[in-house]
Structures are given as C-alpha cells and as structure tokens.
Automatic annotation (TrEMBL):
The chain crosses the membrane at residues 7-32, 60-81, 93-113, 142-164, 185-208, 223-251, 263-281. It is a multi-pass membrane protein. This is Branched-chain amino acid ABC transporter permease. It comes from the Bacteria. Belongs to the binding-protein-dependent transport system permease family. LivHM subfamily.
Length: 296
C-alpha cells in the first residue's frame, strides 16, 4: 500500500511537469506545424532570471513572477526574431532560425553569465517534506501536482471558453480558413508563443525546484521530454500532449522502481524502446487532433 501511494504521487508529480512542458511545445506546433527548438531556452531564461534577481530583497514569489515574465518575453522574441521573418519561406529556413536562436541564447548565457551551473533561490518549502499515509513526501512534489492541476484547468478554460482560445483552436484546425474568416494571424501566433513562454517559465521554476541550479544547457532535457510526450500523445492534439506527458512519467517512474542500479543508467534506452513500440502501434500518436491544414 505504501509503495502504491508513493508510486502514484511520483507519477502525478512527474507527469504534471511533463504535461506542462508538452503543452507549451504542441501549442506552437498546432498552429505553425513546426517544432520550436528554442523552447528549452525559455526555461533557461527563467532560471537565469531567478539567479540574477536572487540577491535582491524581493520576496520569492515576486522573483518567480519576474522569471515567468522574462520567459514570456523570450517566447515573444522567438516569434519576432526566429519565426516571423521567415515564416513564409521554407520549413528548412524556419527550423534553422529556430536552432540559431536557441544557440544564440545559450551562448549569451555562456558569455555574459557563466558556463558553470549557478544556484537559484528557492523557498524553504521546496526542501521540506510532509508525511502522507506514513510516507515522507517532498513538498516540491505536491507543489508540482497542485500547480499542474491549476494550470491545466486554467488552460482548458482558456481554450474552451474564451475568444482567444477559440481563435487558436480554429487556427490550429485550418489556419487559412481562420484568416479568411477574420482571425488575426499575427495576434494568434504571438499569443501562442506568449502562452508557451508562460508554461516554460512555470515549468522552469518547478524543474529547478528539483535540481536547484541553472546552466546554459538546462533546456535540452525538458525539450526532449516535451517532444517525446507530444509524439506519444499526438503532435496536433492538446489533450494528447497531456496524456503523453503522464504516460512518459509512468514509464520513467516504473523503470526507476523496477530496474537495478546497474541497469538504471540505461533507463533512457528502455524508455525510447517503449516509445518506439507505441509509435509502431500508433504512428500518429495516441490522439489524432484536428485536421492539419496548410502550414502557416
């Protein structure tokens, strides 16, 4: 029983973080039909913002809000610098500019801050534990679960009940038709990048709550996780991205519990093998999502 409770908490905590990462990636992909490879660097921006404002007398929540705002601005900058100027060009051009912007941000961190990991300020609650059914549980896991539930609920409300959400879903289904019906293209795309930046900022705070440091390459692992989760769930499906995140967390947690210490270093190989089996069964992902339409 104790094992089951601990396992469920671990899956929900990890899955919540993975689901938020995947949502930020698939939101932009749904409209542009292109993967934003600079997505991981938005997490890095949030982390370095926390590091830089860490010495100020500001309360931690204010510092966290500043970090999220900076991630949103970096998301908007990705649109204006890497995507919008070449959006009408070839897919290759957009992918290259996305990679280039990602590299630019990493090198800026290397040059102006440090290549070494830097600590980020975290409130004491992130290192505390509570006892649930006799099991010591880190508070950061519970914070991640609560944040994921709140943000997924807020995101669902935004997409289902607001004009902006309806416009974004229409653009993801058929962008050309949506534009002909009066949906402002640039506003929808910029909003997608801003929401993606917001999710990356929050995920960055939760991610660094686990590791406590930020480094120039910190965004690579979350980007890879988000990409795998969206591939599992379906590249064009928002619910699929969430489901993919939780499935990936279930696989990771199961392997953590079942593999021996000698085999644990090969966990990623086992994970990718299972992902390949899922894709052989459902090449388009577990959920299809709306019709793709033309690339924006």
């Amino acid at each position: 029983m104790d094992f089951a409770i601990q396992f469920v908490i671990n899956v929900l905590s990890l899955g919540g973080a993975y689901a938020l990462m995947a949502l930020g990636l698939v939101l932009v992909y749904g409209i542009l039909k292109l993967v934003n490879f600079a997505y991981g660097e938005l997490i890095m921006v949030a982390g370095y913002t926390m590091h830089l404002v860490g010495g100020s007398p500001l309360p931690w929540l204010v510092m966290a809000a500043v970090a999220v705002v900076m991630a949103i601005l970096a998301g908007l900058a990705t649109d204006y610098v890497a995507f919008r100027p070449v959006r009408a060009k070839s897919v290759t051009a957009v992918l290259i500019t996305s990679f280039a912007f990602s590299t630019l941000l990493q090198n800026a961190a290397l040059l102006f801050i440090s290549p070494r990991p830097r600590s980020v300020p975290l409130p004491e609650i992130f290192s505390q534990s509570v006892v649930i059914a006799g099991i010591p549980t880190p508070m950061r896991d519970l914070i991640t679960i609560v944040a994921a539930v709140a943000l997924l609920g807020l995101f669902a409300f935004l997409m289902q009940r607001t004009v902006l959400g309806i416009a974004m879903r229409a653009a993801a289904t058929n962008f050309t038709m949506a534009r002909m019906l009066g949906v402002p293209a640039n506003l929808v795309i910029s909003s997608a990048f801003a929401i993606s930046g917001f999710l990356a900022g929050v995920v960055g705070l939760l991610w660094m709550g686990r590791i406590g440091t930020v480094a120039p390459g910190i965004g690579l692992e979350p980007l890879l996780i988000a990409f795998i989760a969206t591939v599992i769930g379906g590249m064009r499906s928002l619910p699929g991205a969430v489901i993919g995140g939780f499935i990936l967390a279930f696989i990771d947690t199961t392997l953590n519990y079942t593999l021996s210490q000698d085999l644990l270093k090969f966990r990623d190989a086992f994970t990718f093998s299972l992902v390949i089996l899922i894709l052989l069964w459902r090449p388009e992902g577990l959920m299809k999502g709306p019709a793709s339409g033309q690339r924006t």
